[in-house]
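Lab notebook: predicted structure, single chain.

Context: the supervisor wants predicted structures on file for every construct in the current expression panel, including those that have not yet been purified. This is the next one on the list. No modifications to the sequence; it matches the entry in the shared construct table.
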Amino acid sequence: MKGIKLVRVDFRLIHGQVITKWSNTINTKQIIIVNDELSKDDFMADIYIMAAPPGIDVKVFSKADFVTEANKGAYNSGSILVLFKNIKDVADVTEKKIKFKQVQIGGLGSGTNKKSVVKGISIDTEDANYLKKIQDNGTEVTFQVTPEETKISLDKALKKLGV
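Prediction complete. Output recorded below exactly as produced.
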């Protein structure tokens, strides 16, 4: 999957920071959103597709379809940004033997039992356990909201949270 330049978890999916900062940083030509609910909602999927600037192709896949395409070699070339809405979806995909070099955790809002890792990123114990599994399978897990900010490793984040 040499064409995948960035795998990011961000509950907002396509929004200003992703488009203006991350897509420029990796010079992406394609964004793939992996989310079961969105893959079944043509209206909402079209909104995300229209949110991308000219020249960037957006596709929305279910987790199963993403895995199928990955196994066919669909992501072996290009400059692709893969977006997940939540950590569990990434964990589900990696359990299907899909291996990413790195997973970047971006915007994840606060909620019940969630603790802030950095401003704009909050996780709970379940998220932490999924991330540990992903990292134990050989994927680097980092936290970073924008390219200008310092990357924080999963180990450092878990220490900060006392997990």
